[in-house]
Amino acid sequence: SVNIFWFRRDLRLEDNRGLCEALGAGRPVLPIFIFDSEILDGLPADDPRVTFLHDRLQELRSRMQENQGSSLAIYHGKPLEIFKELASDWDVGQVFTNRDYEPYARDRDEQVGQWLSEQGIEFHTFKDQVIFEKDEVVKDDGDPYVVYTPYMKKWKQVFRDTPLATFDSAGQLGNLIAHSRLPNPDLADFGFERSAIPVPDYDMGGKLIDAYEDNRNYPAREGTSRLGPHLRFGTISIRQALGKALESSNETFWNELIWREFFMQILWHFPRTVHEAFRKEYDRIAWRNDESEFEKWREGRTGFALVDAGMRQLNASGYMHNRVRMLTASFLCKHLLIDWRWGEAYFAEKLLDYEMASNVGNWQWAAGSGVDAAPYFRIFNPMTQVDKFDKDKSYIREWIPEYGTEDYPEKMVDHKAARERCLKTYKAALD
Ligand code: FAD
User: Fold this and answer.
1) Given CB 3.0 to 4.6 Å as the disulfide criterion, which of 15, 171, 220, 369 pairs with 282?
2) Where does the entry annotate site (Electron transfer via tryptophanyl radical) (predicted)?
3) Pocket test for ligand 1, best of 322, 341, 369 (most atoms within 8 A of CB)
């Protein structure tokens, strides 16, 4: 009989908690990955994230083959159906996996776990993608934090009492089943094709982390780590990433990783915020939702150079600098009065580092409707943002080759008038 380890967003052999538990549980382990058709059906055929997943899985598969004469079984379909197949092909004892906190994943795991337990198969899940989950960092009365700074302080306090764990999964690969002929579909087998957009490597070098605070706000500089997609898909463990961050005495970068966990626990406690404003009165805002204005924003043709440069960077590379994410999001919600959910969905489609908790959390922050959001009457001025963060316009010129020529569009709204309109509309909803 075998135990199964189900890879999801933890695509690495090193420091993988669930894999480590599976390998130590006494039976040979069959490692699997499922391209979930429920998720893939909504994506374009050349989605760069699917290419990245595919390539990364091939890498894992080769490493398993080289080292242990083992392999990785890759499937495409609905997870429950795949488990039904697996249970009829193999004598399965237990299934191991790492926890995922998004609402869809929670439902899926509940269904799969339920079915497995009806077959007498144990389903074990583990915390792996965060340092602290669920109720591990809450107020003294057990309520979740909805403001970042006290959450961050409590997080650090709890962290001081818990040494950073590591899990020797890589050292136990000898416990994988020795079986090299396992299913391995190509992208085309499930209707996908290779994307031309690559996921860049991350940089967690000491130089970058030490200078992070000075550089991180300037979109023209390569001053941030580009860890996003690697944390999303688990090509680095959060424990290893945090361990690196802690080698620097500067806490700014560490705090960013805590923002990630802050939004993850918000999504866990308030899954409704995926669709609803955290502050319910914000769902009374009379969004204008003009389709053609939304198109101009998407394509980077608003006439506001920093907004347009950001949208073009996103469209071309699957990445946008954080400073510019804040501005483009604010511009959509406030200058154009387009529902944050439209912008959230567009970012979800394009970002290589798309993370539901962080994307929803940050979009609600930009709209003013979220946890720890700035007061709504603080509206970014897209021109002064240029003076502050791209003074020599090198980021703008990099992404807008026609900037300064007559091919570049006129501003689509007047800043002052749009600002007034926003204040009036928000006020009407919130008063
Ligand atoms: P670095 O600056 O090097 O930060 C390191 C890591 O810290 C990031 O990879 C990320 O995991 C975490 N982090 C940093 N800032 C934040 C933040 N504000 N919220 C949560 N985590 C943070 N981040 C995502 O990972 N996925 C998203 O879908 C996402 N959508 C966003 C949407 C909007 C409107 C805004 C304003 C921000 C969004 N962010 C999102 C947060 C942030 O912009 C990105 O994490 C960051 O730009 C990624 O680049 P980096 O990996 O080089 O980050």
Assistant:
1) 369
2) 287, 340, 363
3) 322
Rounded CA separation 293/304 (Å): 13
Ligand 1 site, residue 260, Cβ cutoff 6 A: yes
Is the minimum distance from the CB of 363 to ligand 1 under 6 angstroms? yes
Mean pLDDT of 25-31: 97
Is residue 183 within 8 Å of residue 219, measured between CB atoms?
Answer: no
What are the backbone dihedrals phi and psi of residue 44, each rounded to the nearest 5 degrees, phi first?
Answer: -65, 155
**Which of 248, 362, 369, 389 should be mutated for ligand 1, with most atoms under 8 A from CB?**
362
Q: Domains (ranges, CATH) in the chain?
A: 1-128 (3.40.50.620), 130-164+202-269 (1.25.40.80), 273-430 (1.10.579.10)
Average pLDDT, the chain: 97
**Cβ 229 under 6 angstroms from ligand 1:** no
Please indicate if the annotation marks 259 as binding a ligand: yes
76 neighbors 47 (Cβ within 8 angstroms): no
User: Residues 320-351: pLDDT tens digits?
Assistant: 999 999 999 999 999 999 999 999 999 999 99
Average pLDDT for 118-125? 98
Task: From the candidates 342, 363, 365, 399, give the one annotated as an active-site residue.
Answer: 363
323 Cα: distance to centroid of ligand 1 (angstroms): 10
**Calculated CA dihedral for residues 307, 313, 318, 321, nearest 10 degrees:** -60
Any bridge partners for residue 124, and if so which?
A: 96
With a cut of 80, say whether residue 180 has pLDDT above it.
no
Question: β-strands 73-77, 92-98: how paired?
Answer: unpaired
Say how far apart CA 247 and CA 241 lie, in whole Å.
10
3-state SS string for 276-343: CCCCHHHHHCCCCCCHHHHHHHHHCCCCCHHHHHHHHHHHHHCCCCHHHHHHHHHHHHHHCCCCHHHH
**What ipTM, to 2 d.p.?**
0.99
